[in-house]
Write a structure and sequence with these properties.
321 residues; single chain
Length: 321
């Protein structure tokens, strides 16, 4: 990619320099090293990598099956399998190349105290930012229980804010009635940015055995099937964020440059790539190329000029027969 094209994609997010507006989503790329083994893949093609959801103590995760392909998407219910925060900080982070891209920790927990402690441990590490996962649908405790309650969401953000000065990104659940109201409370509690949205809860059924395909009975639905919902949620949250200068990572079914551009126009400063990586690990370079082509075609010099430029239709009252 030429220097000019690189400058068109480069951006700032919460004071961090991103190579591009693309962010690899938590749970899709392990702890940042998995896809680097694939020929042609480079972390330099993305602005940031969100590490796998991390809890204070190690977790084995949910019973199998954990993944199920669905029409236009997939269900997953991994259950936050991870080696625990201390192992991630002491053994995994030192092996990452922080000269290639930014790395964002994904903090999960079953109590507010656990969220606070995991955040404190990551604060004393080279990690660039911290994503607070208050919306995971695949664990019975914490997770989506906090994310669907605006008061509890704000309490988690406030607790994490008290132990770190690193950028805090609240990952919001679509499984709630007022996502904009939740965002407003999280801003007041100290959130610096949002990830919108996490997966939607869903189910698949084995009709021969008459049981759920997923061992946890339900899982998080991702992929193109949720894109229209995600776009609307980004637009709604942006209405709250724009007055505060709070950036959004828009995510949910992004496969192409057009998908990414739709999210940016709706109000996202950056966009998350997740499910698409499972069938095209080299999709990021293609999306970057498509974004640059669009910017040139519309005589724009940087991605920031496009953020939140959606012109919604004015509502009118019908009066004819």
């Amino acid at each position: 990619m030429t220097t000019k094209n690189q400058s068109m994609l480069a951006m700032e997010f919460c004071g961090l320099k991103f190579n591009t507006p693309l962010v690899l989503l938590s749970g899709c790329v392990g702890f940042g090293e998995e896809y680097t083994r694939i020929a042609g893949f480079s972390n330099r093609d993305v602005g940031a990598v969100c590490l796998k959801g991390t809890t204070l103590k190690p977790r084995l995760g949910n019973a199998p099956h954990r993944v199920c392909e669905t029409p236009a998407g997939m269900l997953n219910s991994i259950g936050l399998q991870n080696p625990g925060t201390e192992t991630v900080v002491s053994k995994i982070l030192p092996a990452l190349d922080f000269t290639e891209t930014r790395f964002i920790a994904n903090v999960s927990g079953s109590t507010i105290e656990e969220y606070r402690e995991v955040t404190r441990l990551f604060d004393d590490s080279p990690i660039d930012a911290i994503e607070i996962n208050i919306s995971c649908p695949n664990v019975k405790e914490g997770g989506v229980v906090f994310g669907n309650d605006p008061v509890m969401s704000a309490r988690v953000v406030e607790a994490c804010r008290s132990v770190t000065k690193k950028p805090l990104i609240a990952k919001l659940s679509p499984n709630q009635t007022d996502i904009a109201g939740n965002a407003r409370r999280c801003i007041d509690a100290g959130a610096d940015a949002f990830a919108v949205i996490n997966t939607l809860m869903g189910m698949a059924i084995d009709i021969e055995e008459r049981v759920p395909v997923i061992g946890n009975n339900q899982g998080g639905l991702s992929g193109p099937a949720i894109k229209p919902i995600a776009l609307l949620k980004v637009h709604q949250v942006y209405q709250v964020c724009k007055a505060h200068g709070i950036p959004i990572i828009g995510q949910g079914g992004i496969l192409t440059a057009q998908d990414a551009l739709e999210f940016i126009i709706a109000g996202a400063s950056a966009v998350g790539i997740g499910t698409a990586l499972f069938y095209d690990p080299l999709v990021c370079a293609k999306i970057n190329t498509g974004i640059v082509d669009y910017l040139k075609r519309h005589e724009l010099t940087e991605i920031a000029q496009l953020v939140g430029t959606l012109q919604v239709h004015q509502k009118t009252v019908g009066c004819g027969s």
